[in-house]
Amino acid sequence: MVVAEGQDQAPESWETSFDGKVVVIGLGNPYMRDDGIGLKAVARLRTMGLGAGVFFYETQNLDLPLLWQFGRARKIVVLDALRSEQPPGTITVYTIAPSKNSTVSQLPTLHAVQLHDLFDMAADGGLLSCPVVIVGAEPKDCSVGEDLTEELEAAIQPMIMEALRQINMDVISESAAP
Predict the structure, then answer these.
(1) Are 89 and 139 in contact (CB under 8 A)?
(2) How far apart are CA 102 and CA 11, in angstroms?
């Protein structure tokens, strides 16, 4: 769901221009415990009044048409549960820049279509024209359930802080341009 600041109801994705905007995507399954962290983090970010230049989107799956929709954004920030072989709750950041020689083939994910495959295809097909930053939290338990584990509940705030840092980095770099 896309929600622009000041809107009570999300416009349909084809009604919204993402040109030059920062798109923050919360990715995950809200019924698989820790896999829902990205959705919960985006829900909290949405309440922070970050302005019309930041759009929020929540989804259980990323696919090429969705990336195409966001392809003209200034930056995409994805918040998700990612396996990094670290202790549960550890925040890991991956940056992907558009390139024909993609190096993201080892990006871990919990989703059926691997994120790295999706970004490789988007880069190879010219659909990805902006940088993508993936902020992941190592899950502990992705069994059926709606509550995050204590470790992932505690990781929401660091995930939000990293997302804000990524959004602010983009705003600062734009304002410094001649």
Answers:
(1) no
(2) 33
